[in-house]
Amino acid sequence: MTIQGLCATIGRGTATPEQVAEFNRLCSGFSAELGLRFTSLSAEYVEAEMKVTSRHLQPDGVVHGGVYCAIAETVGSVAGLLAAPGRVVVGINNSTDFIAPMKTGVLTARCEPIQLGGRTQLFLITMLHEGRAVARTNLRTMVLRPVA
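The structure assignment produced for this chain is given below.
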């Protein structure tokens, strides 16, 4: 099973705890390097969390802005795969606002669809620390060909 295949299986429904665990097992590459762990996968929203470590920080000790952008792109792309089962989805615009600094703890990202079209999708990703927004992203994705 691949991530794309699992997302196509979940489709526009809600993942079971077993499917979420399998999704996390399949995650590799950059999201694994970040330490991102998905906690909810559904058509209504996707959530993931990451424990902030020293490798995520700028020299002045706060989370690097690129970390927020990478998390948003990852979580939003997964939401895009769920919204377009069996299709390739790629990010085409990522606009992230940094709201408050964060130094340590668990960062939670919640992605909700704003617009789901046949060719493009728009998602709002809010990143929270202890219930407080620290960053917010509008992510535009493009729906491409079927997964090979």
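Interim note for the steering committee: Strands lie at 37-41, 46-52, 87-98, 105-116, 120-129, 132-146. The two ends are 13 Å apart (CA to CA).
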